[in-house]
Amino acid sequence: LVCFLDDQTKEHINCTLPPMDGYPECEGKLKWMKEMWETDPCYKSFGVDGSLCSFLIYLSEIEPWCPVLPGRVGSSELEKNLEMGSEQAVVRESLEGLYSSVGNRPQYSWIHQRIHSMKEIWVEAGRSLSAKYNLTQRKAKQIIVHPGAITYESGVKIAESAFHGGPLGELVQWSDLISTLHILGHHLHLSGSTFLGIKKGACPRYSRVNVDLIYTDIVGFKQIQKSAPVIWSRYKCIIRVLDSFGTEPDFNHIAWAEKHNLKSPFGGLHLVPLQFYTMFPHTPDNTFLGFVVQHQLSTEEIEKLKSTKRQNQALVYGKRAEFWQGKEAYLDVIHKYLEIHGTVDKNTSIPSYVKNHGIIKGTAVQILLRQSKVFVGLSFPYEGPAPLEALANGCAFLNPRMHPPQSRLNSDFFKGKPNIREVTSQHPYAEAIGKPYVWDVDMHNLTDVERALTGILSQSIEPYVPYEFTCEGMLQRVNILVEKQDFCSHRESWPPVSALQVVKAEANTSCKEACQKAGLICEPAFFPNLNSPTSFAKYGVDCQTSQFSDSNLVLPAYNEDSKHCLFQSDSLLFSCVRSDQSLIRICPCRDYIKDQIALCKECV
């Protein structure tokens, strides 16, 4: 390295170089810095002045390419010192501080509208949660929010289509996550371009000492990989990926996916599967983030409804013409019992008896739902927020069954999704709620449809929202995830190991199924606690022989005949959802709070 020293750096010859073992790229990075450090003013802001010592300090403490110099404070100490002097998070009494951040960016227009429309509800939920739980002694975290799909560079145009009948599920979830983090008292940095405007190869504006969490989506994750590889490679443990339909471990694991031909445009991120945050609790391998079911109306709108009784009408769930195609016979039967309303583009060809309101704002949809008795599913879109909004407004949901169940094996929609989860109806979460709120029907069996309509119209239902989909429920859940869920260290186990309940699955049964049968949920965070012969012995499994392997997704497990035990050697391959015909799975389960499935009873 002495060859790098020139007249400018000779005065720093006393800069003692540490051993370079384990840092193969350090020498190349030093060469690059010597030539290029003046190309970005950001380097100077981190103390780079053209000297060898400044290069080494930067490349060891800001970027991860070189070892920390002897006598220097390592990044872990810097983080510890910063944490000790950080401010406390205080539950906020207003969303005003958010408006300038979201209101000044066109991509956030729909998000801004939703946040503003729910401001009173969020503030009241924050007060209610504070009254029930001790929310003091929390660090106010620095959080980057990067919804990659709404950036112009992504080309997805989800933000542009939001006011013209486009899909809203992801925008709903981003709106509610942003509101939640703000109310909980954290500091948000919202990104509106590729990743905070960072160009590939540029000096990073954020380092681990001043960013605690990064929320993004799959599009955004790939943008971070490309434009800010240092942030991605060093700090990916603080990344949380919003992923509507979920990513299963075998699709997430790069080598496994390639070997087993499971490559997906959305897979191969190689994260801990719990770093994927889903809209609904599809799979326990991922974390359930959720959203808020909006059903509250303003005082003026409530007054408008006081003189309006629930009408003998149905509202159809479908804003696009293609959702209605081929459903005429199904709709004809419903029209025999109810006046049918729609919210479709007015140039769309739909049955003449449908009273079409066109594309309308969310509050207008709430009013229509409160006037209607039935919310009619058309089998698509899958797993959106609207059916739960219907239930919240006292409107039953007609939920079409899927014959056969839809998955990437037989559906173009799911073909590229990084999972093989089978969708048994248009809305599996609503399906689990069941009657009297949700009625599953075969759209092609008109007798079945009439039977369901007769059952719905013979009763009246009260508005219903599961707690996990209320503002307060989301505040509770996200607060605990922010405070407790940690993929960067193993200093504190979460959920607490005391919540572990072990269940033996039958052959050809997944841990998800085995735990559910016992009234529990599979908890992948507990797999390491079972992954040894000693642990198996504690739960009554006698291992005559054993080995560690990364050749199967159902490990840890054992063969009942041979008493041969297999343990997982690759922690990214722990899976709640896979099964094997010849192996008995030992499953890590936990209890959960009713209507708050993400949290165990000891977690709050």
Radius of gyration (Å): 27 Å
Proportion in β-strands: 5-15%
Mean pLDDT: 88
Low-confidence stretches: 1-13, 74-85
Could you tell me the number of beta strands? 19
Q: What does the largest sheet look like?
A: 7 strands, mixed
Shape: globular
Helical segment tally? 22
Our measurement of the CA-to-CA distance between the termini, rounded to an integer number of angstroms, reads 54 Å
- Label the structural class: alpha/beta
Domain count: the total is: 4
Helix content: 25-40%
Descriptive account of the structure:
It is a single-pass type II membrane protein. It is found in: Golgi apparatus membrane. Its EC number is 2.4.1.155. The chain has four domains: 2-72, no CATH class; 96-288, no CATH class; 299-464, Rossmann fold (3-Layer(aba) Sandwich); 493-590, no CATH class. The N and C termini lie far apart (54 Å). It has 604 residues and is of the alpha/beta class. β10 (374-377), α17 and β11 (396-406) form a beta-alpha-beta unit. α9 packs across α10. The chain is globular. Mean pLDDT is 88; it is low at 1-13 and 74-85. The protein has 22 helices and 19 strands. The strands form three sheets. Strands 7, 8, 9, 10, 11, 12 and 13 form a seven-stranded mixed β-sheet that branches.
